[in-house]
Amino acid sequence: MTFRPRSTLSPALQRIAALTAVVALAACSRELPAQSARAAAQATPAPQAPVAAPAADPATPADGVLRALPDFSSLVDRYGAAVVNVEVVQKPQGGGGIQGLSPNDPFFDFFRRFGIPAPNQEPRAPVRGAGSGFIVSPDGYILTNTHVVANADEVTVRLTDRREFPAKVVGADERTDVAVIKINAANLPIVKLGDPSRIKPGQWVLAIGSPFGFENSATAGIISATARSIPGENAVPFIQTDVAVNPGNSGGPLFNMAGEVIGINSQIFSRTGGFMGVSFAIPIDVARNVEEQLIKTGRVVRGRIGVTIQDVNAQLADSFGLDRPRGALVSSVDKAGPAAKAGVQPGDVILSVGGHPIERYGELSGAIAAMKPGSDATLELWRNGKAQNVSVRIEELKEQPQKVAETGGGDKPRTPERATTALGLTVRPLEAQEKARAGTSGSLVVLEVSGPAEDAQVEPGDIILGVNGKRVATVKELQDAARSSGKTVALLIQRQDAQIFVPLRLP
Q: Which one from 147, 266, 348, 352 is the annotated catalytic residue?
């Protein structure tokens, strides 16, 4: 194929090429077809030995000679045999296998008992899927993704030498998407685990897995970012890469230049279900912690301090007087939780935990979750333009069902009072029964939005809790806070059961 030189593209085409599409989060292996291609057999390598590091990054030295790109062949030769293909089968569920007949129909049991084909009966085939994994102990413990083995009735592990073993799911953790499976074997090749805290954007990395069923396929790229937060996923500070990761790569290892596993390939951003240049890996230290707990107890214990947090953007940083966007902004505090007992308040920005800086809110979630319940942690808070430290006792995080907000019903509010502020908010006070029904500590509800509030996507029905970290309970307090604010305002609102800070930019 001949590539067109960049100079032949017109400025208009260059602008068009620069546009990117909105992408949707997709799991790497959930769209894997039933069939898989078989890779050629590979011999099991000799006992573990250090891997020769690939060549350094390309650069042009003083002599003007371009150095070679990295060669990962020694890494693949050494550790490729420790990467396995994981095939799963989910059998059809009973109770509705005769199409066209209800289980309550008297003829349903007749056809089922005697094996006579029922009208419109169609056999249901087992659901098959596949992914990747890697061996972490010579006696057969394997790490993979939870979404690879979820709801599987049968799990089969295939090695590079074509041997196959039935596998048992030791445990799976949905929150981190880490699962441990076990095969009965001995003297298996294993990978070497690395330290994700030492990685940096721009470093070379290699993935080995079974994309689309092509076993033991190697793809390379660089680290794009570290401690990346994904919407809806706040338990894992993901490693972002541009390594080609596709359906079937899920659960496979991500290697650094020294041949150490630093992550488990888990998710991709894609419009089509295939690779588009953005993939995410679970840091191996997170996975290792989950693995140890699943093997030892069959469950994962996490720490909590009882806060809801959000990221700090430039407008919020300006509102709270921070030098730059950093930290995790506390939007709500569990009244009975450890943070409340330590004096943490909504509007505080957590800058560090135990002396480790928090740049993005996802780093705080992962750090607290990894702490042992009963231990103490020192939080550095930013409050009222100053930094201060508080000590908080870590509690165990217990999964609880989401509380559904009560909506509708009841009489229409009778309070006619309403007022419009400089923020573009038209509000009125809440009656006592409305506050009780909404389960809120706020006293003002939004009726209409315009101007800055509309631009910030504040919605009618939102309940106003505070401005710039200070509580407001009356229309006058809201108006005074709006008048005394600068060009940006951090508005704390309650929307259904969630509390969030919304930045408003004033004209």
A: 147
